[in-house]
Design the sequence.
């Protein structure tokens, strides 16, 4: 069945059509929100809320933009709100702190050696204004025009934000590589002396 | 620096098993809550309207009796209609003045100049 037909059915209150939309988008939305928040459980909760909003706001959807853009827009807005709320709370559980300490990852002061982990860390540090377009472009594979529709911003603004976001990530990765290089050099030196 | 190409290779995650049923359960709960809220709102509005109506009736009947229907029906007998009627005693006095030996003592019995007669 065509996506637009599904949406029309959801607008009429068809729950089966809604379940089909959830089935189609659940993995993409959970992944997007997990990349954005860096927290899988939070991403699952936000995704659930996203789909519930999709159901209740379905009547407001107009087929001028693709349905996927509309769902991503709802998910982005929810994620931004959640991020603001959690930054106000600004609490970290002790369990989380000890587990990070034990595993030796995720520290700004001690960049780890894995490129993926460094990327993850840099992405988490990136301001949401730039993080969202970078994730949508480089991880979810949307075009700049589609991102502009999702964020309701001009294409030029989206281009600039992607460029600045990537620039920041590059600098952070270079910094991490530099520290790694120094660490390796120090290690080599100490081995030499021995 | 080509490392940014790895952004696309960041480990992807999937929705947990039973995610759809969780969403549908959440949706059913939200629908129920909405329905309850609408019912509560409807009852509140009806209650507020009834309260306003009772308040209006009570005010009209008992607190402002001068303007109420009971006041206008029952209060007729107490109503005063002031009529100012000038009384001219001069002619009466002139006629009676023919009787000799009659002494008239004219005394002001009221502070009000005009004589008000209440019917």
Sequence:
């Amino acid at each position: 069945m065509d996506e637009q037909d599904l949406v029309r059915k959801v607008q009429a209150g068809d729950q089966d059509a809604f379940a089909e939309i959830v089935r189609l988008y659940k993995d993409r939305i959970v992944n997007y929100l997990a990349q954005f928040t860096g927290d899988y459980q939070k991403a699952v909760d936000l995704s659930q809320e996203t789909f519930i909003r999709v159901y209740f706001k379905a009547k407001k959807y107009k087929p001028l933009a693709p349905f996927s853009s509309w769902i991503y827009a709802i998910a982005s807005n929810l994620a931004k709100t959640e991020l603001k709320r959690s930054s106000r709370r600004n609490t970290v559980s002790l369990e989380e702190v000890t587990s990070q300490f034990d595993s030796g990852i995720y520290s700004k002061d001690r960049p780890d050696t894995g490129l993926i982990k460094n990327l993850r860390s840099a992405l988490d540090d990136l301001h949401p204004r730039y993080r969202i377009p970078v994730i949508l472009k480089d991880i979810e594979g949307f075009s700049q025009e589609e991102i502009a529709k999702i964020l309701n911003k001009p294409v030029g603004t989206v281009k600039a934000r992607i460029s600045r976001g990537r620039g920041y990530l590059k600098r952070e990765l270079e910094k991490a590589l530099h520290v790694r290089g120094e660490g390796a050099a120090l290690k080599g030196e100490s081995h030499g002396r021995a | 620096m080509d490392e940014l190409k790895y952004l696309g290779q960041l480990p992807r995650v999937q929705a947990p098993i039973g995610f759809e049923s969780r969403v549908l359960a959440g949706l059913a709960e939200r629908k129920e809550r909405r329905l309850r809220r609408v019912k509560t709102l409807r009852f509140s509005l009806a209650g507020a309207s009834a309260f306003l109506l009772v308040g209006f009736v009570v005010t009209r009947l008992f607190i402002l009796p001068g303007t109420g229907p009971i006041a206008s029906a029952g209060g007729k007998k107490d109503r005063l209609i002031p009529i100012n009627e000038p009384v001219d005693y001069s002619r009466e006095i002139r006629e009676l003045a023919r009787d000799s030996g009659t002494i008239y003592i004219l005394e002001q019995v009221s502070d009000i100049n005009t004589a008000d007669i209440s019917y």
